[in-house]
């Protein structure tokens, strides 16, 4: 018997390949849903995606819960560079979401028994809650990088965010089915690495254009060094513009990756606890070193002195930016591919989902698998660090 996994789509988008279409370049959740379907299908699951008509994820079954016309009436006029307001609550959007979630519940009930036999992946937090809270299945919040998660079964994007949330909820333990699985990336969507001697003289910042993302820090350091910096993202760039600063609206994935391939480095000095910071992995796979803050997810994703630098003071940021060419771009690429590829992250989900399916067995948490030959799902690959001399 093949285990069934439901992956919930998003009311504000269609699940289409983010590597081929720029339509949803500003919605990271769309890429997450696409990747979940692809990864879990590759791991042998019977994946059922429920979303807007016109979605075409890699899965066993696509279920249209609202028509393309209904979706298009609300969202079809948006430009590629516009942000999708996933949590907008005016009457039209709210009615759309209520119908979307109600149809999801109906379609899942039609495909499930009355016991806990399937897993439902809920990538959009509170928005998906109403669709699944009354269904007796394993409802799993996947990719938690937001506040106020609600489910009993949780997948966080980083240990930093997992521990932050535990502290905020005043939990001290026994969260056995709260786990950490990072975001996944498709290495085939990236161009070849550009060696250091062929890099161009500019830095990149790609994020929300707000000081909580450290934009002021990145711009100030680049300006102090006389190195141009390209700002890419949503928001008001006016306070950051000036000599050496070039502003771009949000780009499609291929456009951004091409800029990252040739950049000296990426600044991501986020001033709050960053849950994941996907652009740093985009940069790494592109062979672009990162200059970041020394807290949040970056303590997990950026190998200090080998794939980038983690900093806390002006002096450290200045030194890191001046010495970013000491970081080997091939090491950045190899580290990120080995630890954040679709194949590697897919296997992590398979291990976690097996632990949930074990709860259906007679021994539950105590279920033993004597046929097990390895426990590698949490093993990071550091073999490339120090290579490519």
Element layout with pairings:
Blueprint: E1 4-8, H1 28-42, E2 46-52, E3 61-66, H2 68-75, H3 91-111, E4 119-122, H4 126-132, E5 138-144, E6 153-156, H5 159-168, E7 178-180, E8 203-206, H6 215-225, E9 229-232, E10 245-248, H7 253-262, E11 265-268, H8 278-285, E12 290-293, H9 298-301, E13 308-311, H10 314-322, H11 329-340, H12 342-357
Parallel strand pairs: 1-2, 1-4, 2-3, 4-5, 5-6, 6-7, 8-9, 8-11, 9-10, 11-12, 12-13
Helix pairs in contact: 1-12, 3-4, 6-10, 8-11
Keywords for this entry:
389 residues; alpha/beta; Rossmann fold; 6-stranded parallel sheet; 13 strands; globular
Based on helices, strands and strand pairing, what is the structural class?
alpha/beta
- Largest sheet, spatial ordering of strands: 3-2-1-4-5-6-7
How much of the sequence is in beta strands?
Answer: 15-25%
Total helix count?
12
N-to-C series of helices and strands = EHEEHHEHEEHEEHEEHEHEHEHHH
The overall pLDDT average reads: 93
**Oligomeric organization of the protein chains:** single chain
Helix content: 25-40%
* Poorly predicted ranges: none
Characterize the largest beta sheet: strand count, sense, and whether it forms a barrel: 7 strands, parallel
- Rg computed from alpha carbons, rounded to a whole number of angstroms: 21 Å
Number of strands: 13
CATH class of the largest domain: Alpha Beta
CATH architecture of the largest domain: 3-Layer(aba) Sandwich
The backbone outline, from C-alpha atoms, is globular
> What is the CATH topology classification name of the largest domain?
Rossmann fold
End-to-end separation: 49 Å
How many discrete structural domains? Answer: 2
């Amino acid at each position: 018997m093949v285990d069934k996994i439901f992956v919930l789509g998003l009311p504000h988008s269609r699940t289409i390949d983010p590597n081929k279409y720029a339509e949803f370049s500003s919605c990271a959740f769309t890429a997450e849903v696409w990747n979940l379907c692809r990864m879990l299908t590759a791991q042998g699951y019977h994946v059922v995606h429920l979303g807007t008509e016109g979605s075409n994820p890699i899965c066993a079954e696509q279920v249209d819960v609202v028509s393309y016309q209904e979706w298009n009436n609300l969202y079809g006029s948006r430009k590629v560079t516009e942000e999708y307001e996933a949590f907008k609550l005016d009457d039209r959007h709210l009615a759309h979401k209520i119908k979307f979630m109600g149809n999801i519940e109906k379609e899942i009930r039609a495909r499930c028994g009355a016991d806990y036999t399937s897993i439902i992946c809920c990538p959009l937090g509170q928005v998906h809650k109403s669709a699944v809270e009354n269904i007796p299945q394993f409802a799993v919040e996947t990719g938690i990088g937001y506040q106020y998660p609600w489910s009993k079964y949780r997948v966080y994007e980083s240990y930093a965010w997992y521990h932050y949330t535990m502290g905020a909820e005043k939990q001290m333990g026994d969260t056995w089915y709260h786990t950490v699985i990072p975001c996944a990336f498709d290495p085939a969507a990236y161009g070849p690495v550009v060696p250091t001697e062929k890099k161009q003289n500019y830095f990149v910042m790609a994020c929300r254009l707000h000081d909580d993302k450290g934009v002021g820090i990145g711009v100030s350091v680049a300006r102090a060094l006389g190195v141009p910096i390209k700002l890419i993202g949503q928001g008001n760039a006016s306070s950051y513009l000036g000599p050496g600063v070039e502003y771009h609206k949000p780009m499609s994935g291929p456009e951004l990756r091409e800029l990252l391939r040739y950049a000296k480095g990426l600044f991501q000095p986020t001033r709050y606890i960053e849950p994941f910071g996907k652009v740093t992995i985009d940069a790494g796979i592109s062979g672009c070193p990162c200059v970041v803050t020394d807290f949040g997810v970056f303590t997990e994703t950026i190998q200090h002195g080998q794939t980038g630098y983690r900093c806390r003071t002006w002096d450290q940021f200045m030194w890191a930016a001046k010495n970013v060419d000491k970081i080997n771009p091939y090491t950045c690429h190899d580290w990120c591919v080995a630890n954040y590829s679709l194949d590697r992250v897919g296997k992590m989900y398979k291990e976690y989902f097996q632990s949930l399916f074990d709860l259906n067995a007679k021994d539950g948490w105590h279920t033993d698998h004597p046929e097990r030959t390895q426990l590698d799902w949490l093993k990071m690959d550091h073999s490339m660090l120090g290579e490519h001399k």
